[in-house]
Amino acid sequence: MKITCALSDFDFSGTPSDLDIVLFGNSGIPTRGSVGVALKHAIMQEKVSPAARAWDLLSLALAVVSSDFAGHRERSPDGWTREFDLTVSVVDAPFWNANAAVLQQFLAYLSTDRWTLRFIEGGILPQPTRKPEHPTEDCIVLLSGGLDSYIGTVDLAAQGKKPLAVSQMVRGDGDKQITFAAKIGGGLRHFQANHNAVVPDPENPPSQRARSIIFIAYGVFIATTLARYHAGEEVTLYICENGFIALNPPLTGGRLGSLSTRTTHPVVLSLLQKVLDAAGLRVRIVNPYRFKTKGEMLHECLDQALLASYAWSTTSCGRFKHFGYKHCGRCVPCLVRRAAFHSWNGRDDTNYVYGNLAIDNEEHAGFDDVRSALIAIAERKEAGTARWLGSTLSSGLVADKPLLASTVERGLAEIESLMLALGVR
User: Fold this and answer.
1) What is the pLDDT of residues 241-263, one digit of tens each?
2) What is the number of alpha carbons within 13 Å of residue 172 lying toward its C-beta?
3) How many domains does the chain have?
4) Residue 20: other Cβ atoms inside 10 A
5) Fewest CB atoms less than 10 Å from the CB: which of 63, 101, 220, 232?
6) Cα–Cα distance for residue pair 375/425, rounded to 1 Å
7) Which are the contacts of 220, defined by CB distance < 8 A and separation ≥ 6?
8) What does pTM read for this prediction?
9) Residues 6 or more apart from 38 whose CB is under 8 A from it?
10) Residue from 265, 284, 177, 266 nearest 220 by CA
11) What's the burial of 346, exposed, middle or buried (CB within 10 Å: 0-12/13-18/19+)?
């Protein structure tokens, strides 16, 4: 699928595509997409001064998210892998074209699609504010509304850090994000935005395999506005997720790892860090929980009282919107969540659509994710962790492989304990 993403004053007729998308503006015609309509205004309201290449990275992220919505997996030859030929207008086209290969590798691993990237001039770079604000926070944390990001933000504040919270506003989580930011650390400065991607004939339901790039791009963007960044220092961007979900091991040979997120997979973060370093963006991405299970994150949270107050109101489900903004209770993220709460104190006040997984039918005990988890537990015991993981840790971009393998073992053990407690066989 050939897609061109540029500002509203761009002459799209000069680059024939299957789909044209207007960046940071309205499309004007039904056959053209748009993304970031309100984003520029939200940024300008902050009166900050981001780095020029942070604007370019944000433009790329918006283009990728829009493409992800527009691409239909069922129309691809194998029913899954899509092919995107994406042209994006940026300020520094020569730099991004020179680094297109690593970006393509990053996106391919993130979304399991094939990407060809081209960059053209004409990107956005607003006039700087006369007296820009330079926030005094010492780091950035992504605050999604999920349990892991909530724990991570609580821990940072408890450690004496002063994080600026950044959120991608999603229906069902927006109010939670605001509440969490207000309650943690006596109240955190909070940047909350929405990409507002709209494309004609979107995939339904959308795969959104590449959606996390916009969340990370927000974090990098805001990191470059901090006072310490403008003083020439490096800023840490914390992306908090338990090591089991971060690795996203395929539970069985018939499942793709991309059925769940790859946002914080070591390969993804390593490739993105390579791009940031090449761009001269002094932002260091860190997942402090890459060697922790979700249960261990709960046990070791530094403010147990604050954790207990809001843990069950967080969101983990992969089908949260589909089930009317309720946790399904049977997808892999829900199983990991339930297992973590079971490990923590045996109590789980989350309202699950499919609560009793011991019911012997296809919607409960026979559901694919539930059966796959049971198979994974048995196969790992029989074959050993290394053989069961297969190529999950094979990349040279993955460091500390024994520690990661141990994290997966403990994560599966938490799920096994939950299954036994629920009576799932």
Assistant:
1) 999 999 988 887 655 443 456 88
2) 15
3) 3
4) 22
5) 232
6) 10
7) 54, 57, 237, 276, 281, 283
8) 0.94
9) 193, 194, 196
10) 284
11) exposed
Q: Three-class SS of residue 180?
A: helix
Q: Please give the mean pLDDT across all residues of the chain.
A: 93
- The pair phi, psi for residue 249, each rounded to 5°, is -70, 135
Q: Does residue 244 share a domain with residue 364?
A: no
Residues 121-130: pLDDT tens digits? 999 999 888 8
Residue 398 lies in a domain: yes
Task: Please tell me the distance from the alpha carbon of residue 140 to that of residue 77, in angstroms, as a whole number.
Answer: 41
Per-residue tokens: 286: 């860190």
Using alpha carbons only, what angle is made at residue 226 by residues 233 and 184, rounded to the nearest 5 degrees? 115
- 93 near 262, Cβ under 8 Å? no
Residue numbers of the domain that contains 226: 139-286
Q: Same structural domain for residues 154 and 282?
A: yes
CATH number at residue 167: 3.40.50
Contact 197, 25 (CB under 8 A): no
DSSP of 297-365:
HHHH-S-HHHHHHHGGGS---TTTTTTTSSB-S-SHHHHHHHHHHHHHTS-----BTT--TTS-STTTT
Using the 8-state DSSP alphabet, how is residue 129 labeled?
P
Strands 83-89 and 114-120: parallel
pLDDT tens digits for range 58-103: 999 999 999 999 989 888 888 888 999 999 999 999 999 999 999 9
Answer yes or no: is 358 within a domain.
yes
Instruction: Provide the β-strand partners of residue 408.
Output: none
Dist CA 313 CA 131 (whole Å): 39
Q: Are 238 and 162 in contact (CB under 8 A)?
A: no
Whether residues 22 and 112 fall in one domain: yes
Point out which residues pair with 120 in neighbouring strands.
Answer: 89
